[in-house]
Amino acid sequence: MRIEVEQPATASLPKRVSYSQMSLYEQCPLKYFFSYIAGWREPPTSALAGGSITHEICEYLYRLEPQDRTLDAAMNLLREHGPRMLRTTEYKPFENDLKMKYSVKEAIENLFKVEDPTQVVVQPEHIEMELSVEINGVNFFGKVDRFTVDGINRVTDYKTGKSPGKFVDDKLAQPYLYALGFKTQYEIEVDEVELIFLNAQEVVRRPADSGLVLAQGEKLAQMRTASEFDVANSSWEARVSRLCDYCAFREVCPARTPDAPAPGSSQCNTKLAEAGLLHK
Fold first, then answer.
1. How far is CA 103 from CA 47, 52, 120, in A?
2. What pLDDT sits at residue 121?
3. pTM
4. Is 40 helix (H, G, I), strand (E, B) or coil?
5. What is the DSSP string of 138-184?
6. What are phi and psi for residue 237, nearest 5 degrees?
7. Residue 4 in 3-state DSSP?
8. In whole angstroms, what is the distance from residue 159 CA to residue 72 CA?
């Protein structure tokens, strides 16, 4: 269902595209409009705070010398950096969230159950490694959690939360796209992609099949072309699915709420502000 929106004549797409942008557009172009054209975002959640803290502790841990990457060291890093992050404006609301804190501690402990950090071959410059490269005419950017070289070139991404179950292939799209970014920007062939679901104690590894890797580059180009059409025509598709029940924009989505004001209108913006969403 295509929805006419109100947007400034000067409305434009972000100059660069990330995996999260591409994924959101595939889920629902209208939700992409609300987030990246209209400039609305949901307030931080405890899950976001916990995930950010977990990623940061993993980063600090793997910057240590291999023999120093012990569980005690990881817990010390958590005690040092966890409270610091929870004092920031973004995450301060979760300073006393004991459930979130337990989930972070569990995720860090589980890292040592799914792998031995002292045996992971990774260079400091290969942690939180930035990608910024043109792929199929699209300026792509991203940040890779970890790139290891131990006889196998491997791109790794940490995940918190539940096991993906039957949706694991959807989650693999991200490291496949990162593998293409590595090949294009650094001329490095990635042999394998890896997802580590810390809270679920689950590791998923797949060969970096060239067909699957290149397919993500094609999806990236298709997404950019389609979104250029949408912004030029002030019309975006509302893609109705079971995920609509959890969407922060459902009350202002004409596909979900027939009498909703036009997306991008002042009435729509008022409703979003009243619902607690933040404007960039």
1. 9, 12, 24
2. 94
3. 0.93
4. strand
5. EEEEEEEEEEEESSSEEEEEEE-SS--GGGHHHHHHHHHHHHHHHHH
6. -80, 130
7. strand
8. 22
